[in-house]
Amino acid sequence: MQLSYSSYSVRKIALKPINLKSEPIIKQPNKCKQSVLDNYMFSFTKEDQKELKSLLIYAFCSTRIPFNVIENNDFQAFLQKAYPSFQISSCYTLSNLLDREYKD
Questions:
Q1: Residue 94, Cβ neighbours under 10 Å: how many?
Q2: How far apart are CA 16 and CA 69, in angstroms?
Q3: Residue 36 within a domain
Q4: Which of 79, 76, 82, 85 shows the shortest CA–CA distance to 43?
Q5: Which residue segment(s) compose the domain that 65 sits in?
Q6: Residue 27 domain-assigned?
Q7: In a domain, 23, yes or no
Q8: What would the pLDDT profile of 72-90 be if each residue is shown by its tens digit?
């Protein structure tokens, strides 16, 4: 069955002019102030901390970054600024965690 436009009825829509005059804006006093979370510190659970360390190990291994970079003051300053609650491990701890990851 082939449909044609002639079988459909087309309605014409009458457009009404829009009143572009806007109502005056009435400023209302703020009844309460919203809190600002500038100094909010996100904290990690033990499971989050473990997963982050595991991801850090994989990132170091996949890019062949030596583990002693974790003890670099500039790298530690970056991590502390990005995630203040992240507990930075030593290169020896990362090495031990890597051994455990591959044993499991």
A1: 21
A2: 69
A3: no
A4: 85
A5: 42-104
A6: no
A7: no
A8: 999 999 988 888 888 888 9
